[in-house]
Specification:
The complex is a heterodimer.
Chain A: E1 3-10, E2 13-20, H1 25-32, E3 51-54, E4 57-60, E5 73-75, H2 87-94, H3 104-117, H4 123-129, H5 141-159
Parallel strand pairs in A: 1-5
Antiparallel strand pairs in A: 1-2, 3-4, 3-5
Helix pairs in contact in A: 2-5
Chain B: E1 7-10, H1 14-23, E2 29-32, H2 38-43, E3 51-54, E4 64-66, E5 70-74, H3 79-83, H4 86-91, H5 93-101, H6 105-110, H7 113-119, H8 126-133, E6 136-141, E7 144-149, H9 150-153, E8 154-156, E9 159-160, E10 167-174, E11 179-188, E12 195-206, E13 209-218, H10 228-234, H11 244-249, H12 268-290
Parallel strand pairs in B: 1-3, 2-3
Antiparallel strand pairs in B: 4-5, 5-10, 6-7, 6-10, 8-9, 11-12, 12-13
Classes of the chains: A alpha+beta, B alpha+beta.
Chain lengths: 162, 298
């Protein structure tokens, strides 16, 4: 079977798509659903610009076929903010954790996944946690600060019972 | 970047998988588990299978089960799930550490233990670690189930004992009475993250003496191998006398030096030198794991 009818729930909304087996999930997200926040940055599964959450876990959407995601719940960068920026997005804003911004959606998705497992990572743990995401602009220093700031803010929110 | 066309089937059981493999025996069929070795090759045009059979959703192949004397890992269990298992960490600490080193967070959320071993990339972390862990693979084929120890599993570059119509269904590691310490030291390629050289060391100790040592390599030859000379130097030594430098010095004696991989990343000579250093580091780290109360000199 070279073509499949699939259902993807993306940022809470259900979508029915007909895709070729070979269509990568990142292309279904960008081209079929018009959600272009998720980026393609390499051809080698190294850069992480395509990172989304699939059933609650960060994955590289360029290294999955859309058919594999049939029935899954996906969150993309477009789904991270509600009325306000997600704390991780806010962290990148206040700490200037980006320049061109191309890696940033992937960084935000990966960092959020890291913080869900380790809410208080140190410098080394952040750098290790973001090994799957490459940035060509910043030298990573402000990205690390962004994640530290996000972690601190998310801590405060928990303490305040938000 | 764009794979060639193929037909995709999702299998719900091992039996269905075997049926599909038989049905499409006249075409090029690949099994899809985590896909993080296969899909990159399809994107780059290196691989162009006609049919993909997705086995990653098969319940009977997923999950970690802890029994009295083994830890069983279903072949399509994702690395992240393995890392959540304390019994695995205790039973096979070097293997566990190697899993921690595979790829990155996102890769570990999708890649599978069985896929890593069955694909047998020379630079993958788990074959050498499986050798150190004394792991055993369960393979299902024409004659039913057979069990293959890691020592007999890895045959060459991308070559294992798993036949073209067979499926690796499970990987087990033993749980032993002795105290087990382990470590994995890896010189990762700065670009790919794969092992230029990786060394997994497992020491089973009884009353402070090393009763059994197993050492496995990644990245050095076209498949993972044991370093018997290193194992010999360590076996019988007490934890306080075991000498990491002496272990490193004999590492190359277990290796057919003309067969050491040489490529754009590292010459055979450099890999050989790395092997000695990383053997020493892996032994040092394992001794630390075995006696954490000793002071470290970093």
């Amino acid at each position: 079977m070279a073509e499949h009818d699939i259902t993807l729930t993306v940022n809470g909304e259900e979508h029915s798509l007909t895709v070729e087996s070979r269509k990568l999930l990142v292309h279904a997200i960008r081209d079929d659903l018009g959600l272009t926040g998720t980026n393609v940055g390499c051809e080698s599964t190294l850069c992480g610009a395509c990172t989304v959450h699939l059933d609650g876990q960060a994955v590289k959407s360029c290294t999955m076929f859309a058919v594999q995601a049939d029935g899954a719940e996906i969150t993309t960068i477009e789904g991270m903010a509600d009325d306000t920026l997600h704390p991780v997005q806010a962290g990148f804003e206040v700490e200037h954790g980006l320049q061109c911004g191309y890696c940033t959606p992937g960084m935000v998705m990966a960092a959020t996944d890291l913080l869900s497992e380790n809410p208080d990572p140190d410098d080394e743990e952040i750098r290790e946690g973001l090994e799957g995401n490459l940035c060509r602009c910043t030298g990573y220093q402000n990205i690390v600060r962004a994640v530290e700031t996000a972690a601190a803010r998310m801590d405060e929110e928990t303490v305040e019972g938000d | 970047m764009f794979p060639d066309e193929f037909d995709y089937y999702r299998a719900d059981s091992v039996e269905e998988t075997r049926d599909l493999l038989a049905e499409f025996a006249d075409q090029e069929v690949e099994l899809l588990a985590g896909g993080h070795s296969l899909i990159p090759t399809m994107k780059s045009g290196l691989a162009s299978p006609d049919v993909l059979v997705d086995i990653s959703e098969i319940d009977e192949l997923t999950g970690v089960t802890v029994e009295d004397d083994v830890v069983r890992m279903g072949a399509v269990t994702r690395y992240t799930e393995l890392l959540a298992n304390d019994a695995l960490q205790t039973a096979a600490p070097a293997f566990y550490r190697a899993v921690e080193h595979v790829g990155d967070r996102q890769v570990r959320n999708r890649g599978t233990v069985g896929g890593n071993l069955a694909h047998a990339d020379p630079a993958a972390d788990l074959p050498g670690a499986a050798l150190a862990a004394d792991a055993t693979a369960t393979i299902v084929g024409e004659d039913g189930e057979r069990r293959v120890p890691a020592d007999d599993l890895f045959l060459g570059m991308y070559m294992t004992d798993v036949g073209p119509d067979e499926i690796l269904t499970e990987v087990t590691v033993p749980r032993v009475e002795a105290n087990v310490a382990g470590a994995y030291a890896k010189k990762a390629s700065p670009s790919s993250g794969y092992a230029m050289v990786g060394v997994a060391v497992r020491l089973e100790t009884v009353d402070g003496d090393i009763d059994r040592a197993r050492v496995g390599t990644s990245g050095v030859l076209d498949h993972g191998v044991r370093l018997e000379t290193v194992e010999e130097v360590l076996t019988g030594a007490s934890l306080s006398e075991a000498d990491p430098a002496a272990a490193g010095d004999v590492a190359l004696e277990s290796i057919e030096e003309t067969m050491i991989l040489s490529d754009a990343q590292a010459s055979a000579e450099f890999r050989g030198a790395l092997l000695e250093t990383y053997t020493e580091r892996a032994v040092e780290a394992t001794l630390q794991d075995a006696r954490p109360e000793s002071p470290t000199v970093d």
